[in-house]
Design a protein that fits this description.
54 residues, mainly alpha, 2 helices, elongated, transmembrane helix
């Protein structure tokens, strides 16, 4: 069962990295600020899943 736990944690970390890149692209291009805000919300949600805060 630890394989699945580790697998899903790795997917969450990859999702966090992808969302950070999305936030950077949204803010650098200044075209879609709402996409950046949404990505920040998703990052916060994923970090709580990885760190088991909530």
């Amino acid at each position: 069962m630890t394989f699945f736990t580790d697998y899903f944690e790795a997917i969450d970390i990859i999702a966090i990295i992808a969302c950070v890149a999305l936030v950077l692209a949204a803010f650098v291009r200044r075209e879609n600020i709402w996409l950046g805000i949404l990505a920040v919300v998703v990052i916060l949600w994923a970090v709580t899943r990885v760190l088991h805060i909530v």
